[in-house]
TrEMBL record:
Fe-coproporphyrin III binds at residues 16, 33, 49-50, 129. This is Coproporphyrin III ferrochelatase. NCBIfam families: hemH. The gene is hemH. GO terms for cellular component: cytoplasm. It comes from Candidatus Cohnella colombiensis.
Length: 312
């Protein structure tokens, strides 16, 4: 395993990031837009979405903090206390990915593993995180191993399957319920790049469906950006309307591309999709997110230990 490495091993836990409070939403949005401030209408729209899900309080950052803490505990449990030290690195908010790597260097870390809180690989998402992490690690002389994906880890499939089964229990007739696996859309241009993201999402969905013996399921996209270029579809709202026309009235959303409660889940699904469901007389439910679930922590810890085997 990691016994050949002397000293503490850093674990850079990366995610998209979320503002710390309402006051930092504009800076966060500006960073997402590569330094271009949003228009007042765009900013108002985003702030109103946050207000709708958190009411002015801001617990969303705590979700990620709890995940990082839980992973630290799991690594202490499987490798011994103090062997691994977790650092957080966010794409669009402080502490940024570079800050996490710099903090490792300041603590004298020479070997580290980078992992992203999303199971499926895309060059546009996970690939971008890893590029930034590796560039910063090189500056500080840190040997960095990366976890590319973990979308078919047995514990992940089991944790998701448990939640789907639980969700189906909320319907009077499970047989008539369509399970909609969803994930964040990306620009269509990733298809020309032969990006593995769409196929890995289907593999995760298929593995859960097979484990449960589901026949009524399909994959759909959500949360596409408004950039003027085509994004992968169909969007979940379109999918819901089409299913409704076919007579489907029971739907269980399973966001396999997300691992915690954040804006794309709490607003795009719990508010926007539920509003559509209400208007079309659809019974819509959503599975519980993984958050800091022990099984998910096992997935992350296993992936870190496996990646470390290739580091000398």
């Amino acid at each position: 395993m990691s016994n050949h490495i002397d000293g503490k091993i850093g674990v850079l836990v990366m995610s998209y990031g979320t503002p710390e409070n309402m006051e930092s939403v504009e800076a966060y949005y500006t960073h997402i837009r590569r330094g271009h401030p949003p228009t007042s209408e765009q900013l108002e729209d985003l702030i109103s979405r946050y207000h709708a899900i958190v009411g002015g309080v801001f617990p969303l950052r705590e979700n990620t903090n709890r995940q990082v803490t839980a992973l630290q505990h799991k690594l202490d449990e499987v490798a011994g206390v103090g062997r691994f030290v977790c650092y957080q690195g966010l794409k669009h908010a402080a502490p940024f990915i570079e800050d996490g790597v710099a903090a490792m260097a300041a603590d004298g870390i020479k070997h580290a593993v980078a992992i992203v809180l999303t199971p499926q690989y895309s060059v546009m998402s996970v690939g971008g995180y890893m590029k930034r992490a590796q560039e910063e690690a090189q500056k500080h002389g840190i040997a960095l191993a990366i976890v590319r994906e973990y979308h078919l880890h047995p514990e992940l499939i089991d944790a998701l399957s448990t939640r789907v089964k639980e969700g189906l229990g909320k319907f009077d007739n499970e047989q008539d319920t369509m399970v909609l696996f969803s994930a964040h859309s990306l620009p269509e241009k990733i298809l020309e790049m032969k990006d593995p993201y769409p196929e890995q999402l289907l593999e995760t969905s298929r593995a859960v469906a097979n484990k449960l013996g589901l026949t009524n399921w399909q994959f759909t996209w959500q949360s596409a950006g408004q950039t003027g270029q085509p994004w992968l579809g169909p969007d979940i709202l379109e999918t819901m309307v089409n299913l409704c026309k076919e007579g489907v009235r029971n739907m269980l959303v399973t966001p396999v591309g997300f691992v915690s409660d954040h804006l794309e889940v709490l607003y795009d699904l719990d508010i926007e999709a539920q509003r559509l469901a209400h208007d079309h007389d659809i019974h819509l439910e959503r599975i519980r997110m993984l958050n800091d679930d022990p099984q998910y922590m096992t997935v992350l810890a296993d992936s870190v230990l496996t990646a470390l085997e290739g580091l000398s």
